[in-house]
Design brief:
The chain has helices spanning 2-29, 38-59, 61-83, 98-121, 126-130. It is mostly helical. The chain has a domain at 38-121. It is flat, with a radius of gyration of 19 Å. The model has no long low-confidence stretch (mean pLDDT 78).
Length: 142
């Protein structure tokens, strides 16, 4: 009986976090303007953080732009689910179960590995797309 209550509570928290996430991005994109307002600029900064700071930094510019949408969804989904753990009256993180994290992680890694293999097969430089700027590759000296 307690386990069913915990599953129900986690499910409700996930629904609340999803509703908050949808509401935030809906408010940020409902009245797009050339000179952004407060909420639009927050949304743009958030997406830009994931695009430049995570996707392009880790995957390179070309591949990073292609995978930005899925990374934005996963990043903000996990962020909003974890934020629910510190909100009053919710106090249960939406990512309470380890199976949830593995269920999100496995398809993403499979998708990213497939994209990396396709990029290398197409003849792009694997060093340019797999190393971070400012980091040296493997040392060839013995």
């Amino acid at each position: 009986m307690i386990l069913q209550f915990i599953n129900l509570a986690v499910t409700l928290v996930r629904l609340i976090a999803t509703a908050m996430l949808i509401l935030f991005f809906w408010l940020a994109t409902r009245k797009l303007q050339l000179v952004p307002g407060r909420v639009q600029s927050m949304g743009e900064m958030a997406v830009d953080f994931v695009r430049k700071g995570i996707a392009e930094e880790s995957l390179g510019r070309e591949i990073g732009r292609r995978y930005t949408p899925i990374l934005v969804v996963i990043f903000f989904g996990v962020l909003f689910m974890n934020i629910t753990g510190i909100l009053p009256f919710l106090n249960i993180a939406g990512v309470l179960r380890h199976r949830h994290a593995a269920g999100v992680r496995a398809p993403l890694l499979r998708h990213l590995h497939r994209g990396g293999r396709q990029a290398r097969a197409a003849g792009s430089s694997s060093r340019a797309s797999s190393s971070r700027p400012g980091c040296r590759g493997p040392s060839t000296s013995s």
